[in-house]
Amino acid sequence: MYSTAAALTMCLGAASAKAETELTFVWHAGTCADALLEIAKDYPDESVTIVPALVPYGPEWHNKIASEFAIKGDGFDFAMWDSQSTAEFAGGGHAVKINDIFDSSDVLSSEIFPAASLSQYGEYPDNSGDFYGLPMNQDAYGLMYRQDLFDDPEEQAAFKEKYGRDLTVPETYQEAKEVAEFFTRPDEGLYGWGQMGGREYDFATTASNSFLWSFGGELYNPETYEVLGYLNSPASIDGVQAYVDMFEYGPPGSGSWGFDEVNAAFQQGQLAMAMQWFYFNGSNADPAVNKFAESTSFGILPGAIGRDGKFRRQFSVGGQGMGINKYSQKLPELVKFMEWYFQPEQQERYAAVCQTGLKAVLESDDWQGLNSYNAQFSTALQYLNDYWHLPEYPVLLDQLQEEISNAITGSKTVEEALTDAAKKHERTLQRAGYEISRSDSTPEVPDQEITPVGQDQVVPVN
């Protein structure tokens, strides 16, 4: 009897020595989630364990978070969500306001993150100074290209003879179209350009928006909530038409691609250039993954010269912010973990494989010189733009995805697709209670009115 009781006591003692608190997070599976888990193994408080609830990238990931919030559940304690989802989750009252943590913490503050990044990944409403997320995993669209093709003297001579200029990494989409056309050689299994166009989640629109903004278009007027005249403005049509036209220089079927297909085609040597997230540069620079890694270079996406003669370079922000479930019962333990995790020592480890949001690491020479693309990423951060920061984002996204897909397949012209999307968006906003203040006229190039970034000359960065 004594021995049984003693054994039971020993078991209970052993159990109490194990983790007493589990902090569960939701994210999409991948390199960055793996990095978080690996780093968390060294968290000094052994009574706390970080537990993953990972799902594939796409709607399932968003829906897992949204469904838990819908029942005000505590099935997870924190989550990484897209920047656009902050409005939905914070606007619904489901996320912890980070300002309160900044006020009480000796470690966490707004000053340790770049102001623009903190705003993009956590501020709601825009320009309010209220934050509901931290820049956990920054990302941006970038350009990858075959340096060996660009450096080949015969290719350089042939390009110059055909186009009357040197073969260089494109700074504008007008230049990119020429380079893509030049390298498109189906008989050789080579194509000039790869980009996403899939109907799933945000595949097509993160790409098309990058063209739209660079040509001076806008998704809507955030002051008046007008969409008609903005999303289907002449400049917006120019941008999305340029995006659709680039599929001519990609492999057959590339209009339905996601990021995996872009990576595979590039790694197999089918593409001279590709539009891809910086998130994937680590694998695309790895000879074990990409047999052309040694001749792969990374750069900044082109901009465009708009119909007003102004040069603009804007592209989609990627990555995720870290938000806290308001219904979690473990906020004190989570804040302590965050105070440890967002220190430079941990973020340097994270930044070795992903893109940190900690200013001290981003600005360090060691990090910028760590690989062949970190320095470009730091430059790319200044050109980021985003979708609507509105709670209705999921509906607006699906409507725009549908219509951009219609333009890609040719079932509608670009103008028809954008006009139909604009009408759907205005109906969605009106049903949600927004009052649309109709202007007497709308600008041909909406960027001139909304967030002017046009410059008189092309600003080279590659």
Automatic annotation (TrEMBL):
Gene Ontology CC entries for this record = periplasmic space
Keywords noted in UniProt: Signal, Transport
Q: Where is this region: Disordered?
A: 432-462
Query: Which range is the signal sequence, renumbered to this chain?
Result: 1-19
Location of this chain's protein in the cell: Periplasm
Q: Would the keyword Transport be found if you checked this record's keyword annotation? A: yes
Q: What's the main place this protein lives? A: periplasm
Family named by the database record: Belongs to the bacterial solute-binding protein 1 family.
UniProt-recorded name of the protein: ABC transporter substrate-binding protein
Q: Which source organism?
A: Pseudooceanicola lipolyticus
